[in-house]
Amino acid sequence: MTQQRFLLHEHELPTHWYNIIADMTNPPPPYLHPATLQPLSPEDLAPIFPAELIRQEGSSERWIEIPDEVRHLLQMWRPTPLCRALRWEKALDTPARIYYKWEGASPPGSHKPNTAVAQCYYARKEGLRGFATETGAGQWGSALCFAAQFFGLECRVFMVTSSYHQKPYRRVAMETWGGSVVPSPSSMTQAGRAILARDPETSGSLGMAISEAIEYAVTHEGFKYSLGSVVNFVLLHQTVIGLEAQKQLEMAGDYPDIVIACAGGGSNAAGLMFPFLKEKLNGSRPNLRALFVESTACPSMTRGLYAYDWGDTAKTGPVAKMRTVGHGFVPAPVHAGGLRYHGMAPSICTLLEQGFAEARAYQQNGCFDVAVGFARAEGLIVAPETAHALRAAYDEALACRESGESKVILLNASGHGHFDLAAYDSYLQGALPDHDLEEDQIRRALLELPTVAG
Amino acid sequence: MTQQRFLLHEHELPTHWYNIIADMTNPPPPYLHPATLQPLSPEDLAPIFPAELIRQEGSSERWIEIPDEVRHLLQMWRPTPLCRALRWEKALDTPARIYYKWEGASPPGSHKPNTAVAQCYYARKEGLRGFATETGAGQWGSALCFAAQFFGLECRVFMVTSSYHQKPYRRVAMETWGGSVVPSPSSMTQAGRAILARDPETSGSLGMAISEAIEYAVTHEGFKYSLGSVVNFVLLHQTVIGLEAQKQLEMAGDYPDIVIACAGGGSNAAGLMFPFLKEKLNGSRPNLRALFVESTACPSMTRGLYAYDWGDTAKTGPVAKMRTVGHGFVPAPVHAGGLRYHGMAPSICTLLEQGFAEARAYQQNGCFDVAVGFARAEGLIVAPETAHALRAAYDEALACRESGESKVILLNASGHGHFDLAAYDSYLQGALPDHDLEEDQIRRALLELPTVAG
Predict the structure, then answer these.
(1) Secondary structure class of B18 (helix, strand, coil)
(2) Are A329 and A160 in contact (CB under 8 A)?
(3) Residue-wise DSSP of B25-87
(4) Which percentage of chain B shows pLDDT scores above 70?
(5) Nearest CA distance, A317 vs chain B (angstrom)
(6) Nearest CA in chain B to A146
């Protein structure tokens, strides 16, 4: 019978992270200072991030060594399995060969601990006491609380209010791992209090939670700020996913025609795709397609403007050039999954602008349709975020059925949905609304972009 | 660095189940008919179970071949990892070497699908339309719904009322996999209606839910009944756990001094331990200790009577000789986990009676204490049931610290706790009560045992 799971040994975990910046002819333009809008220096970032992470952020080395202690912790669950979706292929009656990388195998249930462990390692090395961070759907916060305990670090999580109430189990998981969680905006920071004063009933946003976490970090002795996506060093840490998948597909004797992942800030997508995109950038795989999938409820890649924007609502973090729907953007609370950041990783946006990658947006009900079919075929209940990647893979597989092509589709199954079953419940009861962003809402948000020369 | 995970390839999944009955000098006495109390014939079981499972129930063959199609489905997640608990050992400052078999890696999150897949395979082969079953904490119901879909079988689940309300996510998971779930006792069966008439506010019990499921099965064309624990064929199907663990410990160069698992009906415990107990039964490992761990809220092994008793409340299922707190027993609704069956697998009770195994009971708060420590050391949030096994392993590891012995402890981490976070929340808030069974409650329950000659 055809093999379903491709497993690697502990010692086959990659020894180095892959830095795509080294292979980009035109890398993303520099970050700007949030107040002066002038290019940001590493010193400007020093109060916010650990020094080694700032160094990695600006690095153009192609390979960066993974410290032994980080590798040993990653080996708790890595290498993760690569699975052939045999039963799903059969259910879809497609000649496509579909593979998924199962990142839901990590203890916190997603790809997020790949970078959380590394960030906590560098924080500890620097002698920090703890991290403050934001979380939307809760995958990132869970991962950081999980990782922080291995290094004796405290973890303070600002969780977007709507998710805090929709996903109580996520909060309990974070607390079980020793973290402290508050709904954001909170009264714990000036940024939070200012937002609540303007809009006491706000459902919150990642932009607001980032502002609070940065403020908490810079005003508390021994704390720095930890970010779960968007910036280069996070995407770098995620490349173990794609590097493993390359070895595993080699075991399977296949190579992808198309790689697919969902993207909120872009980290799981970059993690899977960047090692493959290396081969497109260097010309050896010119026909490889890289498809980033987002939600119509927060369509930064498909409807945003490619422009400099602040990374957070209170304008305290770096300004980055990216596709954005505006730093003041608040996603509709009916949106069940993550994928709710107003911008997108600058490196991914550069690749999109340069035509090395493509983007697509989906409504959530169409994603749950496919996720339920996937659960019944492959047994796994995935996170709503991951359901967006499944939806795109489904459409590609059906296109193969039409055309008769046996394409190889590789997707990142970035996380399980065990803490998202309230959303599945709504979906199964027909009570989950779709949501499109109104043109006006985007136009209003974009009016607030900074004016940057050039 | 010391290896943490011991992985086997797909093709190393065992080809045969191990049947401990073949190695018992005095196997368990026969089942009795629920009405006549005379020895039960295979024909008596025919309306309830698929024929091949009845054959396996009575078999004394040592090895029973696993059908190819069942193996292929098990390979979706099996072989499961064997993990060395390096960080937990360090946290406990123990010289013991602790290994855990991680059954939470299955899609439904526990060991239960090991038998669910096999049962559905035989049901389909027999041309059945569906299964009715009971579930307590929900792990079994999830596993059967998950497995049923692969064979196009319908699945009707009677879920103990207290769990149905405490664990809504379990219900949603079952529905996502296409199952139908009702709280039990329900008005859907005569047995359920009779119980509700006597006690409309009952929190339910496994004994009641079994009665309802059997009744539903025998009164619906094309349905039979599926049981998730207790009987020989279920325990048989679980032995893949221990057979894999034997190979994996060999890779690690170790052999257990003590094997530990929690036991409600006994299936995960038997699955891990029977292949090791084979070597105690045949005299080659006389010093091996096998420790079955239960809850003080339902202490069949440590406080029950070894006697014939009905397997269900309505007295419609087989009568078995086992340690029992009485078929009318209702566990306190404050009890968070599974481990709530009034009896115990007859084969395990026989081993306990003959001195080949030992049993111990714990209060739930002491189990959660250890489970939270384990989550912070090993990253995994386990089910409350599994927490009982962890508690026993913890006590053994601390005894090693006292004595300075480097014992090898092997435990079954039977399931994850992702759907049990409400219980963790109560525990973390100090709001989870402990519960001891009162002597009177046991005495009353035991008055209702059948009078059987001999």
Answers:
(1) strand
(2) no
(3) SSPPPPPB-TTT-SBPPHHHHTTTS-HHHHHHHH---SEEEPPHHHHHHHTTTPSPPEEE-HH
(4) 99
(5) 31
(6) B379
Enter the tokens of residue B332. 């306190």
Residue A306, chain B, CB below 8 Å: the answer is no
In chain A, which residue's Cα lies nearest the Cα of B375? Answer: A177
pLDDT in tens, B330-341: 888 777 778 889
| Model confidence pLDDT, tens digit, residues B231-247 | 999 999 999 999 999 99
Asked if residues B107 and B146 have their Cβ atoms less than 8 Å apart, the reply is: yes
Q: Within the 236-255 window of chain B, which residues sit less than 8 Å (CB to CB) from chain A?
A: none
User: Alpha carbon of B412 to those of B103, B408, B424: distances in Å?
Assistant: 7, 13, 20
Whether pLDDT at B149 is above 90: yes
For B380, the closest of A107, A378, A381 (CB atoms) is A107
pLDDT in tens, B401-442: 999 999 999 999 999 999 999 999 999 999 999 987 778 877
Cβ neighbours of A108 in B, within 8 Å: 379
| Residue numbers in A near B425 (CB within 8 A) | 168, 172, 175
CB distance from A428 to chain B under 8 Å? Answer: yes
- How much is the CA Rg of chain A, to the nearest whole Å? 20
Closest A-chain CA to B177: A376
Comparing C-alpha atoms, which of B400, B401, B394, B398 is closest to residue B377? B394
B447 contact A CB<8A: no
Instruction: Name which of B87, B173, B381 is nearest A173 (Cβ-Cβ).
Output: B381
Contact A216, A158 (CB under 8 A): yes
Q: Give me the pLDDT at residue B454, please.
A: 54
3-state secondary structure of A100: strand
Residue pair A18/A275 in contact by the 8 Å Cβ criterion: yes
Q: How much of chain B exceeds pLDDT 90, in percent?
A: 88
Mean pLDDT of chain B: 95
Strand B97-102 and strand B82-84: the pairing is antiparallel
Interchain CB distance below 8 Å, B177 and A376: yes
SS3 B362: strand
Question: Could you tell me if B239 and B17 are in contact, meaning their C-beta atoms sit under 8 angstroms apart?
Answer: yes
Q: Could you tell me the pTM of the whole model?
A: 0.96
Task: Give the pLDDT band (50/70/90) at residue A454.
Answer: low
Residue B445 has pLDDT above 90, yes or no: no
Pairing of strands B16-18, B63-65: antiparallel
Q: How far is CA B77 from the centre of its chain?
A: 19
B72 touches chain A (CB under 8 A): yes
Backbone angles phi, psi at A198, to 5 degrees: -75, -40
For residue B90, give the chain A residue with the closest CA.
Answer: A150
SS3 content of chain A, % helix, strand, coil (to 5): 45, 15, 40
**Sheet with B180-184: strands ordered across:** B180-184, B154-160, B130-135, B223-225
Q: At A219, which amino acid appears?
A: T
What are the pLDDT digits (tens) for A307-346? 999 999 889 989 999 999 999 888 887 777 788 899 999 9
For each of the domains in chain B, give its residue range(s) and CATH number, in order of start.
4-10+79-109+240-446 (3.40.50.1100), 16-66+111-232 (3.40.50.1100)
Separation between Cα atoms, residue B166 and residue B155, nearest integer Å: 21
- Which of chain B's residues have a Cβ under 8 Å away from the Cβ of A149? 376
The verdict on a CB contact (< 8 Å) between A1 and B109 is: no
Q: Mind spelling out the 3-state secondary structure of B306-338?
A: EEEEECCCCCCCCEEEEEECCCCCCCCCCCCCC
End-to-end Cα spacing for chain A:
59
